[in-house]
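Below is a filled-in request sheet from our internal design queue. Each sheet records the structural input a requester submitted and the sequence that came back. We keep these sheets so that new team members can see what a complete request looks like end to end.

REQUESTER: design group, bay 2
PRIORITY: normal
MODE: inverse folding
CHAIN LENGTH: 340
BACKBONE (tokenized):
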């Protein structure tokens, strides 16, 4: 873990990402392997910064890991998920020590901006380095995936494609960069429509959808075509092409979940009104396209120059509480390394 025998403290940062071709369903729950590929955009300035240090002197009430979130002891569920993830790293690296983990999130709470994607990407990078592992980006992505499926994508910046992979052990279920953050000046305008916590977490909802939705087989069949179309649209920087795939992918994911038993409905009334705002903008000549994740917020893809038109239209939509304008950002990076 350190060439000088002193523990290494590593701080890493990662941005959250929003899927334009959605991931919804697992082929292996234990290894967190996705049933299909997905395609996303990593965002700047909205993410996680995490510091990790493995050391014998970690002070925790139960002798385990000491985990803080935004300066306070982390909630039990959060801490358990982090400790379970650190166990994977302890196993691989043979560093049998407790860890000190300090996470700071710049993702606003209840913004539906997948803090777990940024969180596990930053944690995978910081913890693997602190344990003396020097992983290649694809290996880091496969590691982050075991914390949260979408985290595999936040290892990379800009437009990213995640592969479902075919290996049983998941070694090829990792992401890769398609187009770096600076290459195409787009924006995601987020319309926040509720401050309530989501009704059902994505893993549980995916499992229920796979088990009970009669549309799940159709969903699995449709994703590969969407990936081909989205990949081509990213390569050509074709906003209308990418936007139409993004809208249909989101609609199919939600249709599939709505048909589960009991049904899963993430939307509220404002979600529908915001979708209508996007259609109205488009009818008036602005290229704007929505996507929706496991929550009621509406995220709108547009050209950077159109964000100043899209943002006020969403802000004025009845039921929209707040808006955020997000730009493409870099992949996970180490910001500090010190021996102490
Ligand atoms: O990474 P998870 O397990 O939180 O699942 C992400 C699910 C969606 O955000 C709805 C879709 C996606 O591809 O990010």
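RETURNED SEQUENCE:
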């Amino acid at each position: 873990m350190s060439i000088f025998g002193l523990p290494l403290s590593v701080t890493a940062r990662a941005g959250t990402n929003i899927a334009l071709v959605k991931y919804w369903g697992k082929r292996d729950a234990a290894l967190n392997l996705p049933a299909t590929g997905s395609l996303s955009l990593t965002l700047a300035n909205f993410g996680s910064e995490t510091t990790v240090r493995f050391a014998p002197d970690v002070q925790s009430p139960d002798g385990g890991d000491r985990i803080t979130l935004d300066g306070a002891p982390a909630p039990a569920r959060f801490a358990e998920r982090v400790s379970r993830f650190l166990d994977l790293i302890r196993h691989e690296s043979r560093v049998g020590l407790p860890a000190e983990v300090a996470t700071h999130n710049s993702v606003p709470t209840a913004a539906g901006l997948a803090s777990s994607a940024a969180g596990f990407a930053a944690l995978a990078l910081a913890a693997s380095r602190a344990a003396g592992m020097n992983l290649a980006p694809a290996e880091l992505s496969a590691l982050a995936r075991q914390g949260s499926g979408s985290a595999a994508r936040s290892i990379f910046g800009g437009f990213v494609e995640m592969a479902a992979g075919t290996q049983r052990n998941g070694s090829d279920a990792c992401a890769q960069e398609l187009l770096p953050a600076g290459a195409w000046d787009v924006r995601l305008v987020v319309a926040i429509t509720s401050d309530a916590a989501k009704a059902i977490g994505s893993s549980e909802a995916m499992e229920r959808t796979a088990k009970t939705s009669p549309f799940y087989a159709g969903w699995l069949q449709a994703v590969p075509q969407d990936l081909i179309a989205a990949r081509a649209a990213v390569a050509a920087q074709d906003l209308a092409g990418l936007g139409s795939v993004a809208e249909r992918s989101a609609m199919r994911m939600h249709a599939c979940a709505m048909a589960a038993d009991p049904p899963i409905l993430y939307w509220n009334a404002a979600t529908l009104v915001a979708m209508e705002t996007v259609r109205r903008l488009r009818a008036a000549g602005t290229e704007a396209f929505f996507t929706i994740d496991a929550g009621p917020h509406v995220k709108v893809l547009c050209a950077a120059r159109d964000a100043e038109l899209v943002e006020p239209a969403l802000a004025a939509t009845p039921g929209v509480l707040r808006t955020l304008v997000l730009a493409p950002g870099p992949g996970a990076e180490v910001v500090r390394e010190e021996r102490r």
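SHEET NOTES:
- Residues 186-326 form a domain with the Alpha-Beta Plaits fold (CATH 3.30.70.890).
- Residues 216-236 form the longest helix (21 residues).
FILED BY: M.R.
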